[in-house]
Amino acid sequence: MTFSMKRVMAIFQKDMKDLYKNMYVSSTILMPLIFAFFYGRMDDLTVEVHFVVINLTLAIVTAFLQCSIIAEEKEKNTLRGLMLSPATIPEILGGKSLVTFILTAITIILCTMLTGYEPTNIGIIAIAIVISSLFYIALGTLMGLISRTVIEASVLILPVMFIFGFGSMFVPFAEQYPILSVIDYLPNIQLVELAAAVEAGSGFGDVLGNLGIIVAWVIIGMIATVIVFKKRELDE
Amino acid sequence: MENIIEVKSLAKIFGNKAALEDVSFQVEKGETFGFLGPSGSGKTTTIKILTGQLLQTSGDATVFNLPVTSLNKPSYRKRIGVITDNSGLYQRLSIYDNLKLYCDLYDVPTKRIDEVLEMVNLTEDTKKVVSKLSKGMLQRVTLARAFLHEPELLFLDEPTSALDPVNSKHIHDGLRKLNEKGTTIFLTTHDMSEAESLCKRVAFLHKGKIQLLDEPKVLRRQFSDSSVTVELKDGRELNLPGGSKGANEIYKYLSTDQVVSIHSNEPTLGDIFVEVTGRELV
Ligand SMILES: Nc1ncnc2c1ncn2[C@@H]1O[C@H](COP(=O)(O)OP(=O)(O)OP(=O)(O)O)[C@@H](O)[C@H]1O
Ligand SMILES: [Mg+2]
């Protein structure tokens, strides 16, 4: 198996140029920024509020971006050309994931500047967000493999936005309805819990449980992606 | 002569309908091979199987002496170029940026872009955004992209179907140059004169099988009844048998200065196809 960084970067540059001109997809970046702007005008934000914006970014920027740039390659028949070229699937997905990762990082940094979030331990928070973003990239890849068009991608993103973007709103109900307690194990809720613990003075060792659950989600997401990919490899 | 493609008893069944039943042929290294057949006869299907985009139902197909299913390594991909009816371009990017991506993927220097755009007569339009191009221009960009890495083997599925005669000729010249430099070309077309002028050998695909396969001029001779048509000054057109039987009569008209023109009735590839398949090539 060869893996060429040059080809990854070729895909990366192409997708960056393309997104720059793709208003429909790139304007989704504005949504969390708008939220962040309005939250930022309020005083004394809790860590939960900061993470509403961050989780929203992960759901609609990270997952949606990745999903729609993969779906569009299928919709416009450009994926065929890439597959017939020396580029391999890991290289193609690598280039796209890099685009998504960098745009996610920029958006989150801008959001935290707007909301004025200054974590007590920036190292732990950064690691947790990076690991979380891997999960959302895997989720976006999975949805991208399933959807055939950008419009389908836009529909698929709705439940993702609902569950992962606004999931923390359902946490209070979990106490009333025990069946909803599974929500606690979602990666977005784990991320908020972790951040709250860090704010309360926890160190790296104290949040390993939360990180472990998020890592488990990354692994599940990657395995699911590989399975779906293998199933669809020789279609038509 | 070394074979670059070998196909034996190839069959492809979609659902319960056979697109290819029993197809066998070889393509020699260095030749331009024409793959002709009516719409829906399975030309594109064959190209897809040979380039690993589709799995055959049965039969063997090898390219570079390797089963087509094992050709997905980058090192083999570099040796092959493919254009099919669904070769997409990035609509929001310029012609240059589309080609730049493929230069990087194939490890070709970007100065090659000017050369291939010259081959397809698009040197003036480098900066144009693809979404603003006409159908024929799109087809030429796709061709340029396939020429970038000077592949050893080039599959072209109806490369000039959207082009005017001037651009078709320009592309034909480019294809001949590529061929002279060593590229083997596997070409499908509905344009019989294109097949005749470019291809060393042609195959007729019909009803899931190869019905004929030879050099165009051999086929034309084989299907010729050697008759001639004589046009006379009084407006009559006579169809005369070839050989000594017709010669006397032709001499008679010639010596009395009645002849406007004489044509031998060699069939075109299109005529031969109609005769073999009993239907028009569309
Ligand atoms: N993915 C597919 N699923 C089902 N049937 C298919 C598929 N692809 C092709 N076919 C069928 O296989 C047959 C051959 O199609 P193919 O596209 O190879 O024809 P073709 O010779 O390239 O025609 P044309 O000259 O119009 O391009 C057709 O009957 C077509 O309907
Ligand atoms: Mg076809």
UniProtKB/TrEMBL annotation, chain A:
Compartments (UniProt record): Membrane
Record-linked InterPro entries: ABC2_TM
Principal place of residence: membrane
Plastid found in the keyword field: no
A Pfam family annotated for this UniProt entry: ABC2_membrane_3
Any one GO molecular-function label of the UniProt entry: ABC-type transporter activity
Membrane topology: Multi-pass membrane protein
GO CC terms: membrane
Keywords: Membrane, Transmembrane, Transmembrane helix
Domain ABC-2 type transporter transmembrane, first and last residues per copy: 58-226
Keyword Transmembrane helix: yes
TM region positions: 21-39, 51-71, 92-116, 122-146, 153-174, 207-229
PANTHER family noted in UniProt: ABC TRANSPORTER PERMEASE, ABC TRANSPORTER PERMEASE PROTEIN NOSY-RELATED
Official protein name in the record: ABC-2 type transport system permease protein
Lineage: Bacteria, Bacillati, Bacillota, Bacilli, Bacillales
Automatic annotation (TrEMBL), chain B:
Cellular component terms (Gene Ontology): plasma membrane
Name of the protein in question: ABC-2 type transport system ATP-binding protein
Main location: membrane
GO MF term list: ATP binding; ATP hydrolysis activity
Gene3D superfamilies per UniProt: P-loop containing nucleotide triphosphate hydrolases
Compartments it resides in: Cell membrane
Domain ABC transporter: 5-232
Signal peptide: none
Organism of this sequence: Oceanobacillus polygoni
